[in-house]
Amino acid sequence: MKTHTDYLTFNTKKRQEIIDITDAVEQCRATAGIDEGMVLVSAMHISASVFVNDHESGLWQDILHWLEHSSAPWDPARYHHNETGEDNAAAPLRSMTIGHEVIVPVTKGRLDFGPWQRVFYGEWDGQRPKRVIVKALGV
Amino acid sequence: MKTHTDYLTFNTKKRQEIIDITDAVEQCRATAGIDEGMVLVSAMHISASVFVNDHESGLWQDILHWLEHSSAPWDPARYHHNETGEDNAAAPLRSMTIGHEVIVPVTKGRLDFGPWQRVFYGEWDGQRPKRVIVKALGV
Amino acid sequence: MKTHTDYLTFNTKKRQEIIDITDAVEQCRATAGIDEGMVLVSAMHISASVFVNDHESGLWQDILHWLEHSSAPWDPARYHHNETGEDNAAAPLRSMTIGHEVIVPVTKGRLDFGPWQRVFYGEWDGQRPKRVIVKALGV
After folding, report:
1. CA A33 to CA C27: how far, in whole Å?
2. Cβ atoms B14, B127 nearer than 8 A
3. Mutate which of C25, C94, C112 to test chain A, going by most A C-beta atoms within 10 A?
4. Tens digits of per-residue pLDDT, C86-120?
């Protein structure tokens, strides 16, 4: 079994941002030299997500609006976690709604995606350095 | 390490449907001849889910109702994504709520599930051919 | 490829509880003797979650409140699934919101987590024995 691990670092300008990281996932696969297997892509912070969806800016707006209005509103006063001095308790809840990791299948030397599928980093509490681990495993 | 990959195609009669695909997951494991490892089951579209839960029709009704009323209502006018000409923006949000993939553990030559656990394909925008990748990895 | 599988059993005092299981995940990795690979941690019941987040009791309160008020309220009368004689239909919906499994990356002989990340079992219908599978795979 071959493995290779990369770490990506993001320091977003806005507190919430969605970033397409598909090319970095493919780069990790290529460095590992894997034809059959998978790539694990996982946020290394409790206030971020990794997910697979569409590269379309209207959808990204919809996701941010949906997290605020249907999942976990930012309003710091709502949360016990913020009694620790934080103001970001909504971010872990948003991380749990969407998830913090994906597994990308690898077949015949490529990321085995269907139409429109891309890998995204969802930053829910940025403006500081945050990391994502990308680990390829296979043969 | 042994691997085997199958692709399933679904063309549902209704736009939203939940389909038990456990037997196809076991078939992939058997074809791969894997005793210890895992099976990755992943929707290849941004408007569908794969999840593990209960084979019970009342629950499936509850899931569809919950996605409409507590997660992302279908109403196309709510979403920026639909300005591209689509009307299905709720489907990616539902895909992200439930997730688009699962990893099934394999132990001693069988899917290592607890009581009631089965694998399901959740179609959130069907009535056209959609694919699921099933990839077994192990020894 | 090396593999090792452990099964954890929980019988919670309260019906909903959040339990830190990181040490058991590391124990499985160590028993397997894996330096590079991953650990799959997956609830074996349809009414529980496994997730990665923060070891902070205020956040755990927030999660339980959020599941009741923003995800799936417990109220048994709302759900068709409860016509089977159950009263726990909210638990599968909560399991699907947060997810029932995680993959923990292993690098250089340790769980490759960022700051604050820990693995938790989320019990959404306890007070009876429930199991979690922990399976390490790698080299």
Report:
1. 30
2. yes
3. C112
4. 999 999 999 999 999 999 999 999 999 998 999 99
